[in-house]
Amino acid sequence: MDENVLQDILRNLMSKQKLAVLSTQRGGQPYSNLMAFAYTEDLRHLIVATGSATRKYQNMMGDSRVSIMVDNRSNDEQDFHQATATTILGVAQPVDPQIKQHYQALYLKRHPYLDHFIASPTTQLFVITVHNYLIVSRFQDVVEYRINDEADLLS
Amino acid sequence: MKLIYSPESDRLCSASLIGGKGAALFKLYDAGIAIPSPLCVSTEVYRLFVKQNGLGEKVAMALGRKDLQEIRWEEIWDISLTIRNLFLRAEIPAEIEQHLHHQVFSRFGDVPLVVRSSASTEDGGHHSYAGMHSSLVNIRYDNLVLALKKVWASLWSDRAILYRQELGLDAMESTMAVVIQPLVIGDVSGILFSKDPTDSSRMVIEAVYGLNQGLIDGAVAPDRWLIDHSDKTICSHFAPEKRMTVTPVEGSSRLQLRECNDWQQQNPPLQQDTLHELVAMSSQVEHHLGAAIDIEWTFAEGKLFLLQARPITTRSGDGETDKRSWYLSLTRSYENLKALRETIENELLPSMQADSERLEKVRLDELSPHELANEISERSALNTQYTSAYWQDCIPFAHGVRLFGEIYNDLLSPDDPFAFVRLLSGQHMLGIERNELLWLCARKIHDNPSWMSLVRDGRIDLIEDNEIQTIVAKLKKGFAIGFVEAGDPGVFPEILSAILLQFSMLHVHPRHCQHDDDATLVADFLVAARDAIPMDPAELLDLARASYRIRDDDNIYLGRIGQEVERALAEARKRVSAAGVTDANTLSAEELSAALLGTPKKTAHGPFLRKPAENRSKRSVFFRQLQGQAASQGIATGQARVIDRTADLKDFRKGEVLVIDAIDPTMTFFAPLASAIIERRGGMLIHGAIIAREYGIPCITGVKDATLRITTGDHLTVDGYLGICTIQSSRNRQ
After folding, report:
1. Is B110 in the same domain as B178?
2. Domain count for chain B
3. Looking at beta carbons, which residues of chain A come within 8 Å of B60?
4. CATH of the domain at B655
5. What is the mean pLDDT of residues A85-114?
6. Do residues B620 and A147 make contact, with C-beta atoms less than 8 angstroms apart?
7. Angle B569-B570-B575 from CA coordinates, rounded to 5°
8. Where do the PEP-utilising enzyme mobile domain residues begin and end (chain B) (predicted)?
């Protein structure tokens, strides 16, 4: 499959979804949350935000490896043959204050109603550097798109 | 909610409610044309049935594994069989059964019925669905629910799916109404085209004695008349060689096919007066439907009845063609299959055997250049001729397995729609016999270190042992070994040695997969089929087994002819190389012949089994899980061996997963060595699937671009239950 085709599939999927499931872990215990997210056009980075008092904040600060799932299910039986989902594996880092404005603008462009949340001094913006996307379609087809030339996280 | 419609109370029903056929019949019935009183089970009933049984998503998932355009016909047949089984096993809602009893039984009682498909998109004047869906004849009320399920399921017949795809119609939007009429047991029946699709100045009438079921499904050859459309005079009449008839068996739902009596053999089913009566009726129907029509009709006790009518499609009327006739030709009647078997077993295969034996005896090294060029030409022509016969007779004969599968599932509704394959497998097949010889030979060699050493050097021919050389001779002459190059006597020892080296690593006999309850399955089928099908059950099973066996064996017969072509080419290459031509191995048959005779040549390229792999070095997209058709159960892991060209087969190692575009029976000696088989070509009944089941190894077929998406060395897990291949780690990712 052509890389450009796959990128188009991913952009199309992510552009239509406001929320994603973020998975973190602490002490071997996985933990998942529904999160608003944004992404860069080159698909290399995702942006999420959370309060610094939350468990997910603590988890990401303790172990930066994260998994995010974005899907277009409609909670209907047709999902089994129609839905597409992507699991995104990457590393989350608190956004450097010097470049915060850029990522914050991307985030608020998708989620303008979260401006108060973002403006809070206790809200931390995280940028996730993506290693790979795993795209599941037609119930069982799985394709991996490695966006960064790094070690295989799944091997 | 109204579920069943009658022409008396619902004169102007739309096709979306009662289908195209139902709407036309209601209209003509209302106009006073003699039609057996119709009732119509609406499309709403189909929707209720599908919804209540959760069939919608099951159908969508069965069809959604790949883009429809990428699915081979054989895979579509498999999908269709699966869907049909889902329909047959589903329960009809009680509400519908009450409606049927209240309206159908009350109206018709227990008389024999005809149950006809009437799809919402059917017969609307743009596209003809003639023959695409099922109509069932001689159905008693007790069997009506089963008949309805069969007709509904025919919305998903292989040919209907293909036809809708060709027309660009959304499969998931399709729906089906059903017309129910009392069966008129006609003395003479047939069809009429008010305009011959090939010449609009003529009408066509075809007629048979008895019911027209035999004419519709092709089992009975009709008398045929061409009528001038303008003055209605008879242009010509063609009689069949022998007149046959289909009639109901009294007291049962069966139909029987038999020869017509002497009087009927001497007299055509229609005379001048009945022909004119038919022509007059067709004019009336044309008038009411406003288009040229094709009708089914019957004469019962001298009275003419219209059974069904549809406008002739604009496509055929305009002289354009679609592939409907080809789709219809994919299925063959039982009688046709019996005739094909006769031809294949008694003529084609013996002829191929005799020719390959004759060719084997020719001392090619003694021929002059001119004689060798002629020999190449003759052998190539023979190969082409047999390949053509293979397509014409052997490929259609494979439908014997499908016919059996459909009948088996109709009778027994098994959990697994492919359970019937167990009644066909485990037979003596040439591919299995060849593998037994390889196993035997390898065992003998394995115990002798000096013989093993010769085999490692590719020199099985140097082993001085009569028993081994007898086996080698049998393998060389009796079976084609899956390389074109194996026809070259100089290369054969090397190839056979490579195969035997792998077989010598098998420490346990690669047993056939036999199930303990196979005999019970056969007995259950024979009991269920007795008096329920229109042919002898044991004879049908025998035909299906022959179809299954020949499907594999015929390729080996054909491969032997191919090997003899290659033997002649190898001799030519040897001579041409000796004469100073450096690229003899790249020359085609014609070019080699030309070179033998001293005329110029052009360069050819060796055959690939698939497209050359794309440059994988810069890939960033990796396939982690591929899905296909679960064609043989089991789960296995192993390294992938992707076969790009036949020459790659020599590199295959015991325990690897064979990944191939399309396996041929001449290559199936890998099955005892492989941990699993993955094939791009799809189908439950393709060669890879057949041999995998024989050896009890997992097999997935229909994996899109399998040889491009998997790389030799990838570590695979093959799940033959779910049809999933997981690429756990990939060499090119390191």
Report:
1. yes
2. 5
3. 78, 80-82
4. 3.50.30.10
5. 94
6. yes
7. 95
8. 653-723
State the Cα–Cα distance between residues B2 and B96, nearest whole angstrom.
10
Suggest the residue from B58, B83, B614, B624 to mutate for an interface test with chain A (most A CBs closer than 10 A).
B624
Q: Considering the domain boundaries, does residue B609 fall inside one?
A: no
DSSP string, chain A: --HHHHHHHHHHHHHT-SEEEEEEEETTEEEEEEEE-EE-TTSSEEEEEEETTSHHHHHHHH--EEEEEEE---SSTTHHHH--EEEEEEEEEEPPGGGHHHHHHHHHHH-GGGHHHHHSTTEEEEEEEEEEEEEEETTTEEEEEE-S-S--TT-
Domain span at residue B499 reads 430-503
The verdict on B569 and B586 lying in the same domain is yes
Residue B53 three-state SS: coil
Comparing CA positions, the residue from B460, B449, B456, B462 lying closest to residue B496 is B460
ipTM of the complex: 0.82
**pLDDT recorded at residue B148:** 95
Q: Are B24 and B119 part of one and the same domain? A: yes
Task: State pLDDT tens for residues A28-81.
Answer: 999 999 999 999 999 999 999 999 999 999 999 999 999 999 999 999 888 888
Continuous segment of H or E residues that includes residue B499: helix B492-503
Specify whether B33 is located in the same domain as B108: yes
Task: Select from A43, A84, A138, A144 the residue whose CB has the most chain B CBs within 10 Å, as the one to mutate to test that interface.
Answer: A144
> Are residues B523 and B393 part of one domain?
yes
Which among B616, B637, B613 has a CA at the least distance from the CA of B726? B637
The CATH number, out of the four listed (3.40.50.1220, 3.40.640.10, 2.60.40.10, 2.30.110.10), of the domain defined by the range A3-144? 2.30.110.10
d(CA B488, CA B569): 8
Residues B358 and B248 in one domain: no
CATH label of the domain that carries residue B103 = 3.30.1490.20
